[in-house]
């Protein structure tokens, strides 16, 4: 191997020896084109398996073409129905979540969690902690500080409601006093007088336009020719 590798150099004086040695090696074209048959298989079995492999690969290619055509047809139908890719994503997510819920792993996990919950809620530590929290809650609600705080909040709410009620009463009373005042009545009378004058002038002008005697008020002029 060392001499062969050294003769690869093109500048070597022995560069022709390698090519001569390679030409002397017999080459079997049939053996190089086909690998040796696996052990335990005859040539007939090998040919049969290769033929079956070619058929399967051809079927796979045909199925890929059919699948691509079906996908294009599906896209056209969705486009005609107005379905967007977001709708398809929602459907896929819903289906995936449904598949997860009905899967054995999810069901087993839910059952395990239910068992753990039962064990935790029935354990002595959990029952003791719940009892302690209930005692603290009862003591808190029965304490003087809690009662005083509750009474203070109740009084503050009552005072706020009374103050709002008083404000509403004051505003209503002020509005009533303003309407009953002489200034407001004088202003109201003036508005009524102006309104009656405007309405009366409109009625008079309308009667003057539609009256048949309106044209006879002025004497006719004598337009006789000279």
Explained architecture:
Residues 1-8, 15-19 and 25-33 have low confidence and may be disordered. The chain is flat. It contains 9 helices and no strands. 0% of the residues are buried. The chain is mainly α and 226 residues long.
Q: Label the structural class.
A: mainly alpha
H/E series: HHHHHHHHH
The amount of helix comes to: over 70%
* Annotation, overall tally of beta strands: 0
Described by the principal axes of the CA atoms, the overall outline is flat
Low-confidence stretches: 1-8, 15-19, 25-33
The radius of gyration is 54 Å
Biggest sheet architecture: none
Terminus-to-terminus distance: 152 Å
List the total number of helices. Answer: 9
In what range is the share of β-strand residues? under 5%
The average pLDDT value, as a whole number, equals 77
Summarize the structure.
This protein has 226 residues and is mainly α. The protein has helices spanning 2-6, 15-23, 29-33, 43-81, 85-102, 104-121, 124-142, 144-180, 182-210.
Spell out the key features of this protein.
single chain; mainly alpha; 9 helices; disordered N terminus
Helix-strand layout with pairing:
Elements: H1 2-6, H2 15-23, H3 29-33, H4 43-81, H5 85-102, H6 104-121, H7 124-142, H8 144-180, H9 182-210
């Amino acid at each position: 191997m060392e001499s062969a590798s050294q003769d690869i150099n093109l500048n070597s004086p022995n560069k022709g020896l390698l090519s001569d040695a390679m030409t002397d090696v017999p080459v079997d074209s049939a053996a190089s084109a086909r690998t040796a048959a696996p052990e335990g298989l005859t040539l007939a079995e090998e040919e049969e398996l290769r033929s079956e492999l070619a058929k399967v690969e051809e079927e796979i290619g045909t199925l890929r073409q059919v699948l691509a055509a079906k996908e294009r047809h599906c896209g056209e139908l969705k486009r005609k129905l107005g379905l967007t890719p977001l709708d398809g994503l929602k459907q896929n997510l819903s289906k995936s979540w449904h598949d997860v819920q009905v899967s054995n792993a999810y069901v087993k996990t839910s059952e395990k969690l239910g068992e753990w919950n039962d064990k935790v809620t029935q354990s002595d530590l959990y029952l003791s902690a719940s009892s302690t929290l209930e005692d603290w809650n009862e003591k808190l609600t029965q304490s003087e500080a809690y009662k005083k705080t509750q009474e203070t909040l109740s009084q503050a709410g009552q005072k706020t409601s009374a103050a709002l009620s008083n404000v509403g009463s004051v505003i209503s009373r002020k509005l009533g006093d303003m309407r009953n005042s002489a200034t407001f009545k004088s202003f109201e009378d003036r508005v009524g007088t102006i309104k009656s004058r405007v309405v009366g002038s409109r009625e008079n002008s309308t009667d003057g336009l539609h009256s048949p005697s309106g044209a006879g008020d002025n004497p006719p002029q004598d337009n006789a020719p000279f």
